[in-house]
Specification:
Blueprint: H1 2-27, H2 29-39, E1 115-126, E2 131-141, E3 146-156, E4 163-174, E5 179-188, E6 193-204, E7 208-217, E8 222-229, E9 232-233, E10 238-249, E11 261-273, E12 280-291, H3 294-301, E13 307-318
Antiparallel strand pairs: 1-2, 1-13, 2-3, 3-4, 4-5, 5-6, 6-7, 7-8, 8-10, 9-10, 10-11, 11-12, 12-13
Length: 319
């Protein structure tokens, strides 16, 4: 019976504590009101557009249990987050930050800069024929288009000192990796006639430099020049250059000693020494010239040589 009385005594104390806490909650009106509002509140109809959450610590919010699968993201207006004018301290579009380019102007890519060049492929003297041969070219422009000036011919050093030259001014453009096209106008002092010129210049397999040019003269005559050249490099400075050229015409011209078909073939072999800069290369060699087809008979009728050969010496350079 004593033990039973002690158990009742603890049970009564516990009941009193629980009853006291219930009265305390009931006595606090703020707590009671908050419990009543949260328990019966419809959260789906809450309008939170006017609430200021700038001071809220979002890092402590636990959103792991929130389901956003039904949220319509397409209706969200984010237009105010981008666009508009750049700030006053923003970097300039050309990254110059307002600093001028100075006396040299705006920089350019190397491929966009117009360049120029001059090359003298042949400037030599033929001892047996007493004449100076030359072949000069110059160009100005870009890698994809250029204006080209070219002249080749011979100058007699004795007698009437006659000058035979063929000069052309053309537009130059690459056609492929190894071939370039030319088109322009030309003038031939030997025929004393202007012409329209078109040609193709490039590199054949085994690095054979090839050129083919056609000339349409004002009298309807058509001239075709074919040439091929190869550089056989013996060392870093010594180079052997064999070269051959052919000339053909579409019709006969007795006044200028021209026959129909192939008229002439020229061949030359030069031993060249390239200096340290390789922009200057003196040479010595042997040249050979012969008439072809009907041109041989025509030259004999005019007491002209059909075949001729000569020692040559000269220089080639470019800049």
């Amino acid at each position: 019976m004593k033990i039973h009385k002690v158990g009742l005594r603890f049970a009564g104390a516990s009941s009193l504590v629980l009853l006291a806490s219930s009265f305390a909650n009931a006595a606090d009106p703020s707590t009671a009101k908050k419990d009543m509002m949260m328990s019966g509140m419809d959260h789906s109809s809450m309008d939170m557009s006017g609430m200021d959450m700038s001071d809220m610590d979002h890092s402590k919010m636990d959103m792991s249990g929130m389901d956003m699968s039904d949220m319509d993201h397409g209706s969200m207006d984010m237009s105010g987050m981008q666009g508009g004018k750049a700030p006053a301290d923003a970097r300039s579009s050309d990254y110059s930050n307002g600093v001028p380019y100075g006396q040299y102007g705006k920089p350019m890519m190397m491929g966009d800069m117009p360049l120029w060049g001059v090359s003298v492929d042949d400037l030599g003297y033929q001892f047996d024929d007493d004449q100076i041969n030359y072949e000069v070219g110059a160009w100005y422009g870009l890698d994809e288009r250029r204006l080209s000036l070219r002249s080749e011919g011979s100058i007699q050093t004795e007698g009437d000192k006659e000058i035979d030259s063929l000069t052309s001014l053309s537009y130059w453009k690459p056609l492929s990796i190894f071939w370039n096209g030319e088109a322009g106008v030309a003038y031939d002092t030997e025929n004393d006639k202007p012409a329209i010129m078109a040609g193709i210049v490039g590199t054949m397999p085994y690095f054979i430099e090839t050129d083919a040019r056609a000339y349409l003269y004002s009298d309807g005559q058509v001239r075709l020049d074919l040439g091929a050249e190869y550089e056989w490099r013996l060392s870093q400075h010594w180079v052997v250059i064999p070269e051959v050229g052919l000339s053909a015409f579409s019709k006969e011209d007795s006044d200028n000693h021209i026959t129909k078909g192939f008229n002439e073939m020229e061949a030359e072999v030069r031993l060249t020494y390239e200096t340290f800069s390789r922009q200057l290369a003196p040479y010595v060699g042997v040249s050979y010239e012969t008439a072809l087809g009907s041109a041989r008979d025509q030259r004999r009728q005019h007491n002209e040589s059909v075949d001729s050969s000569s020692l040559t010496a000269g220089v080639k350079f470019w800049f």
